[in-house]
Specification:
The structure holds 2 protein chains of 2 kinds.
Chain A (H helix, E strand, L loop, with lengths): L8 H10 L4 H13 L7 E4 L1 H16 L10 E5 L26 H8 L3 E6 L36 H8 L5 E6 L5 H7 L2 E4 L19 E6 L2 H11 L29 E5 L9 H16 L3 E5 L7 H16 L20 H12 L2 H14 L4 H24 L4 E5 L16 H5 L6 H6 L3 E8 L5 E8 L4 H15 L10
Parallel strand pairs in A: 2-3, 2-4, 7-8, 7-9
Antiparallel strand pairs in A: 1-3, 4-6, 5-6, 5-10, 9-11, 10-11
Chain B lengths: L4 H10 L9 H15 L34 H5 L5 E2 L2 E2 L7
Helix pairs in contact in B: 1-2
Classes of the chains: A alpha/beta, B mainly alpha.
């Protein structure tokens, strides 16, 4: 039997409009699942009172015939979004106790559309990480489990991915700076789209790397991603980088017709040591798109290999600047001072206590690459390489490619505590297929396509042209239909 | 490029993050590892390439230079660890 919390946005929307289900009942169903799902570590601040208030208001709107698509749909919100009066910490101790006096543009748009907030979701601290292990709240756990080990749901949007995959919400918000929507989506068998840079307002989202950060939906289907992206996107005068471009009807673009489209397979993504399983999945995905009438072509993105090192200069540089504001003065944690401590001691002790180890490392790397004498050698060089990476994609699109198909991750979900414990770079390699898009500002969507030999979900990634999310989602829809991925994790929690 | 303990101490100071002296060697090792990873960028020919400033080229929007917000002192101070008499309070800066 299907419980209401297992519904997609599309199915719940239709049931709500037909009066077969109330928003309050749907919300209660999610709240019950959330309370039974504490072992997953997905929710870090539950907001049942807000949820039920919003659900009652949604029911009134639906009854009055004024129901946008998301009216009455219960969502989980990543902790990186500022939500008025509700703790918003980006999973960092340095923001302990912080309750914003304002609402982020994305959550504000979602609530205006009638969405219901179930609570705040776990993540890597300041969205820096690929396993959700660097969170002040503790780990989030993947609902997929095939042996005695607990697996990572991926990161940084690990709580969002776990919550969607385990039906602890109908859908969730995520943010993606180097792969933080797409990698966790792939690790948990769900759909996640990072839109074109500038499509969704960043206002009120706690910043990591401002030139790369972009919010997007994490959902149970491509249709849901289309519906929710439509509600999140649009120009915002409060974010000067948000584009004043009309938001199309993404759901209406899901025609399932990609005949005559040209799909590129970048040869540089066939990494040495890429598992046979992932290679086979990629080939299978290409076959599916070919069978749907698309033409598959080999393309070259020659600077691919330099994307990760460029990212790990640019993102920490921006982070060191963005995170300078956490000084124990205006909000969050302030260290207890000893007699005679001045303001410098206060800053240093506050930041040492408040930031986790990975955040401290990235701030210091950023400080180093921006410091006198190294700015040109590291930061400017990385920005030049970034321009070349973007040009690679522009050349491919100029040659007539409509979308690019690639793996989402090099492996299925790995065990918690197994990666990057001695060498931080090992963890960084998780983002090898996703980080290029952030550098180029392009939209990308992860779609679940199959299971690994061990029984874990594997996803593929489709990459689109700037502002062409509608077309991109249609390609993803075709892939989703052809793959027919319906597996769900077996409930153990 | 390898980071020695003295450089690690200097970077931590610039970043205003207190690092205990006994933790500096491990930190220096990790920062060196990350920088070594970045050295791959030196293989790329970047002659004549402009550093990217904006991934989606656009002219920033303009608006009239007028006050559009304000009179929210209580909200601004609400989350401060120490706010007194309408100010953020910090340890004594000037003797």
């Amino acid at each position: 039997m299907t419980h209401a919390n297992q519904l997609t946005i599309a199915a719940a929307r239709d049931a709500l409009r037909k009066g077969e289900l109330s928003a309050v009942d749907l919300t209660m169903s999610c709240l019950t699942a959330i309370d039974a799902g504490d072992a997953l570590g997905a929710y870090v601040h539950k907001t049942p009172d807000i949820a039920l208030d919003q659900a009652r208001a949604a029911d009134a709107r639906i009854k009055a015939g004024d129901a946008p698509d998301l009216c009455g749909i219960p969502l989980g919100i990543k902790d990186v979004f500022c939500t008025k009066g509700v703790p918003s910490q980006a999973a960092s101790n340095i923001l302990a106790g912080f309750k914003p006096e304002y609402e982020s543009t994305v959550t504000s748009k979602l609530f205006t559309a009638g969405a219901v907030m179930l609570g705040k979701l776990n993540m890597d601290e300041f969205a820096m990480g690929s396993s959700n292990e660097s969170s002040c709240y503790g780990k989030a756990v993947n609902p997929w489990k095939v042996d005695a080990r607990h697996l990572t749901p991926g990161g940084s949007s690990g709580g969002s991915a776990a919550a969607v995959a385990a039906d602890l919400c109908i859908a969730a918000t995520g943010t993606d700076t180097g792969g933080s929507i797409r990698q966790p989506a792939a690790f948990t068998g769900i759909v996640g789209i990072k839109p074109t840079y500038g499509r969704v307002s960043r206002w009120g989202i706690i910043a990591y790397a401002s030139s790369l950060d972009q919010a997007g939906p994490m959902t149970k289907s491509v249709r849901d991603a289309a519906i929710m992206l439509g509600a999140m996107a649009g120009h915002d005068p409060k974010d000067s980088t948000s584009a004043d471009i009309a938001v199309p009807d993404f759901e209406a673009a899901l025609t399932g017709d990609i005949r005559g489209k040209k799909i590129g397979l970048p040869r540089e993504y066939r990494l040495d040591g890429l598992s046979a399983e992932v290679t086979a999945l990629w080939d299978k995905g290409a076959d599916m798109l070919r069978a749907a009438g698309a033409e598959i072509v080999d393309i070259s993105l020659p600077h691919t290999k330099y994307a990760l090192p460029a990212y790990y200069v640019i993102a920490p540089a921006e982070a060191s600047s963005n995170l300078a504001r956490y000084d124990g003065v205006r909000y969050g944690h302030r260290a207890k001072l000893s007699a005679g401590d001045g303001i410098t001691e206060m800053y240093e002790a506050t930041r040492a206590e408040g930031f986790g180890k990975e955040v401290q490392r990235r701030i210091m790397i950023g400080t180093y690459v921006l410091s006198a004498g190294f700015y040109d050698a590291y930061y400017n060089r990385a920005r030049k390489v970034r321009a070349l990476i973007k040009r690679d994609f522009e050349n491919a699109f100029a040659a007539g490619v409509d979308a690019i198909l690639a793996p989402a991750t090099p492996t299925p979900a790995f065990g918690l505590g197994e990666m990057g414990t001695t060498d931080p770079v090992e963890m960084y390699l998780n983002d090898v297929f996703t980080v290029t898009l952030n550098l180029a500002g392009l939209p990308g969507v992860a779609v679940p396509v199959g299971l690994s030999a061990s029984g874990l979900p594997l996803g593929l990634q489709l990459i689109g042209q700037p502002w062409q999310e509608a077309d991109l989602l249609n390609h993803a829809y075709v892939l989703e239909q052809a793959a027919g991925f319906v597996s769900k994790p077996e409930k153990w929690w | 490029m390898s980071i020695d303990i003295e450089t690690a101490r200097r970077v931590a100071k610039l970043a205003r993050i207190r690092v205990a002296p006994e933790d500096l060697p491990e930190l220096a090792g990790q920062l060196s590892g990350i920088l070594t990873f970045m050295e791959q960028l030196n293989e790329v020919d970047v002659t004549g390439i402009e550093p990217m400033t904006s991934v989606t080229p656009q002219r920033l929007k303009r608006r009239a230079d007028v006050v559009t917000d304000g009179n929210i002192q209580a909200q601004v101070l609400k989350n401060a660890p120490d706010a007194r008499e309408g100010f953020f309070a910090v340890p004594k800066v000037v003797e």
